Amino acid sequence: MSAEEKMINFTIGPVQGFIGQARRTRDLWSGSFLLSYLSGCAMAEIRRCDGRIKVPDVEGDQLLRWIESDGEGAPPRIGTLPNRFVASAEDPAGAARSAAEGVRSRWKKIADSVWKKYVEGVADQGKNTREIWERQVNNFWEIHWTIGAMEGMEARKNWRICTDWSDGRPTIEEGDHCTIMSDWQEISGYVRSIERKKQDDFWKKIRQETSGMDLRSDERLCAIALIKRMFPSVAEDAIGWEVSADRWPSTLYVAAIPWLSAVIESAERDYANDYAKKAFSYAEHIRREGVAEQIFGRKDLFLEIDANFYHTTSLKNPKSTPLKMTPEDGDEPEDVRRRREELIECLEELYNKKGKPSPFYAMLRMDGDNMGRLIRESGEAVSRALASFAKDVERVVQDNLGVLVYAGGDDVLAMLPVERAMSCAYRLSVSFAESFEAQGMEATISAGLVFASHRVPLRSVMREAHSILDDIAKDENGRGSMAVSVLKGSGRYCRWVSSWKGAVSPENEVVLERLAKNLSEKPDGIEASSSFFYKSRELLLMLSGEHRWSPGMFFDLSRLEGLDIKALLQAEYLNALEHSSEITADVRESASEYVRGLLSVSCRHRGPEHEGATGKEICADGMLLVKFLSQKGVQE
Amino acid sequence: MRGMMLGMLAETHIHSGAGRSEGFVDLPVAREAVTSYPVIAGSSLKGALRDAARERGMDESIFGDQDRAGDVLVSDARLLLLPVRSLTGSYRWVTCPHILERLSRDMRLCGISDGFEGASVERGKACCTDDLNQIFLEEREFQRSNGIDGALIDALKKMVPHKQTASRLERQLVIISDDDFGWFASYGLPVIARNKLDDNKKSKNLWYEEALAPDTLMYAMVFERKDGALGKVQSMFETKPYLQLGGNETVGMGWFAVKIQKQGEGR
Amino acid sequence: MYLRITPVDSWFFRDGRPFHLGEATSDVGGLFPPSAFTVVGAIRAHLARSMGWREGKWSEEICRVLGDGYDLAGLRFRGPLLCREGDRGPEMLYPAPLNLLGKRNDSGYEMRLLRPGEEVECDLGRVRLPTAEKIDGMKQLSGYVNGDQLKQVLRGEVPEGRVIPRKELCGTEYAVGLERERDTRTAKEAHLYSINRIRLVRGVHLIMGIEGIDEGLLEKLDGAVMPIGGEGRMGCVEMLSPGKGVSEIRQEIGPIDGRVRFTLVHITPAFLGRWPRPGESIPGVPGEVVSACVGRALRIGGWDSVNRRPVELKPFIPPGSVWFCEAEADELNDVMSVSRIGEYTGFGFGEIALGIW
Hints:
The structure holds 3 protein chains of 3 kinds. By secondary structure, chain A is α+β, with helices and mostly antiparallel strands. Chain A has helices spanning 15-20, 25-48, 62-67, 92-119, 129-139, 151-156, 192-209, 223-239, 251-264, 269-282, 289-296, 312-315, 334-354, 371-378, 380-399, 421-437, 458-477, 500-503, 511-521, 525-544, 565-577, 585-602, 621-629; strands at residues 7-13, 52-55, 84-88, 142-147, 360-368, 403-408, 411-417, 445-453, 481-488, 491-499, 554-556, 617-619. In chain A, the strands form 3 sheets. In chain A, strands 6-7-5-8-9-10 form a 6-stranded mixed beta sheet, with helices on both faces. A 4-stranded antiparallel beta sheet of chain A has the order 2-3-1-4. A two-stranded antiparallel sheet of chain A has the order 11-12. In chain A, helix 2 (25-48) crosses helix 4 (92-119). Chain B is an alpha+beta fold. Chain B is globular and about 55 Å long. In chain B, the strands form 2 sheets. In chain B, strands 1, 2, 3, 4, 5, 6, 7, 8, 9, 12, 13 and 14 form a 12-stranded mixed beta sheet that branches. Chain C is mainly β. The longest helix of chain C is centred in the first third of the chain and has 15 residues, at 36-50. Chain C is 11% helix and 40% strand. The radius of gyration of chain C is 22 Å and the shape is globular. Chains in contact: A-B, A-C, B-C. At the A-C interface, helix 4, strand 4, helix 6, helix 7 and helix 17 of A face strand 2, strand 7, strand 8, strand 17 and strand 19 of C.
């Protein structure tokens, strides 16, 4: 599109501040859905002013249809509209102003619905609750627009000032702060250190209004976080259609998906369903029908229990997994304790037969590289490419047993079981490139993939996904890269990065996943491999002259001329094997194959713009990731 | 503020975990950012001192609680001498100029005169009192450099709880460059592979745990916010000069012998 | 007079987020460099102790000398600023100005400076937004610049050398704290919390200017060990010899066509009651704002240990932010005399450097 044409560039923020600050997967989904919905409201307003949305292509978008009261079929469940878009209109400034106004009034309506249903009746027990609420609701969004070329919007981002601020600056937040969005005051208005009782009473009341299941006893929220949390239950009133929040699996559930499908397709199915019956009779509010239906599309009681009942570690904890009659404080009565033990025994029996579910899940974030420049240069062709990519995304994620949280424009956010997450990311990158190729363009997408223990706070997971995508993949390794990190409850286990090209074999298989699969299939190799990995890292350190290893570190071996690193590693590996097996010619051959594979995932593979600069850089994290993916010997 | 020093000699393996793990070692010891030296955080040390006071039936309130700051400030326990295996003799106590410089500053903060010259040594060389030409630390070889200032040895001796142990100091002390030392501080710690076996004696869970070796020498500082608090801490160690710290006490880990350095006037 | 504050070991600075024992909290973040409120608080508490205070409220006598809360009596502070011992002696470090953009290339960083561009119609009205040629793929450089580099930016030039990344100045120590059950020695349910402590690289320290203090009292600071920030962490204080410390950095500004065009670069966070919009003026500064590179608000709060309650979280303009302004030629002297803007300047907030565009 030419710069002469008067384009509207429109954005709503803060994205990370709104979506990333989440405690549950449901907050994550609800945040991205709301942001997408509000962006759709802005688009609808511009279309009402006879404007056109240029990027993205919204022609087939159901969310926008429904916002414009023109929807068909099932209502949209996830956000599909990006928080920034390009449009044109006769009177661009006028249209942009109405669009901004449209966002404000729809947001206000949602906020009001939550207020009326959950807060109004309790507000007089708080201290300035109404004031706090209004201050936060009115000052949260950063709605920016520029008219003219795209560069204007880039420039606008440098000046973080909002016309919406009621005091001409960001708000002052007193008192205690929200336990999810820590920049904002929690709405009871009390200070815990001196008014604990009043604060607790206020939140107890709110919890009663929300029927207890939506708020945890240690959650004290600001208006924004409460709106995000409660929005699904007021959706019909606030946006005109129902969205069901009970379809959102917890991270623990996502982690268990491969195990669940193995159990349910095995001879243990009846046993498992009997266990579920028992669980339903011993505990309340643990039915997750929507989740099972969304992921498996089948009806089996076993798939419909709260994920805490799949893991003995959670089941052993009365606080996180209460049964009927479990007291809020103190010890469980004898009969409850017996029931809990009975459930644990049943589950352990199942473990003996079918193994344990993984405590790790994957969070995948992807976005297109250099999209700003592409949109400037090729405008609506980019829209067409993105529309075609968008059609693929949900299918690819579902094929890999994942759950799509958000997909709009060039952005993807999804949760996946560990096993196939890397393949899924790779498939999406291929689909992205192909969608652009079909429009005669070359484009790449990058990914930040975090394997996280369910114990790691969601907020940290989101922050990690964000930072490895931007800093490690795009910035450091170059476009068209995937950065992967493993977060255990105790910290970062490893961090690995590669271009897509470097990550797959000629047969288009993700090399790391194949190596991990091989490893998990021969249990005797585990011990040897563990000590081999450990020694290899020491070896690399010594050769590179570095003092200390940290996750994601690349060793520069270019100074060591004539070094045959493969021969060296192979010797180390055979050495490690010697303890358990005889070194035959076959063993030697397979060791050579194995080390070749490991070496290929350990070498630096940079994005296309850096291809000339490839040195002899090697990292130890590829091996760690293999060890992790094989799910052996890695603790939570 | 008046301060005093606690010399802490590890009598057993010590595992003061970071609660965080990165990479191969599943349970690494806590380390300083930047230098990577093993460290015991002031908050952990304070907790251990509080436990020790309670166990001795003494006043634990000087260490404060979640509502009160307490009457003393407790520093981290820092690494001073690291035992490293050597082909030339059983083991060596290794340290570096950076650590000694820090010791000198800390002694002055506690009003104790240091009286020793700062050491300097090139990469690949080692200061020691032997007349050997080379000295081996682990599999690394170092060329002998200068000897060691006698005043330094005296200052270090005052940090060592047992007379007999202190007498070995002169023979076993080695000073290497900061860079060389960094390597030993990072990788010279024992890593214990621990294995959990299933019923068929197959490895069910293998993990690596890092620890400080016995004979590691550390020190910490305690400052008083309220007059007389230092005396109370000192008296804790008069009858029983030991402190238990870190996890794994059930497998007999975590014991330090403690020596209080005579307190002087804070500047 | 300037004070050098060096950590005894690591430091922990709360950033005003919720943090209650007995609840599973995670990621209690650290704010670094610490806010002036924190550093001034530590210095005043130390001075109060040296005047006999131990616990509770300060005596009238102490308040007369040290003030109380936001009242500083006669005291005035500057900073805190970061300083690093280099080969050429101590080197003051300043947050990289936000109009400095960069992109990694194979030999380091390629940098550009933004300045007000053509007028663009946007939600702020018709405004000259900051821009530059060939900035595709570039982003704001977070990190620090030295005095020479800052001077170059103030002259409107791309600085030589590179921006010093934060990781070369300090490292973060992540720690899990837990309260153990006294009997079983196992971690109490939900009594786990994790915090991030800051450890400075050897040779890096804070510099804080102090004025309006009695000579005798000042001596109590030299060589002192004082608690600073959270968790009973400590800093040792040394007085720099007179004349040593931070020199003012300002670029000579001359009028062009009857107008003075100047930039204000924030060196420390600033609290303004209202953030000026295009065409408005900054309190105490002649002329009007033409354009700006202003970062996301830095929210600074704290803990009031006397009243045992959180201090309100206030939005500060982050250091590194830049205002592009214009004034009449006859206001030049008034422009040149600006060195602090906004509130709490006595604590060290609101310090700016002057430049041209």
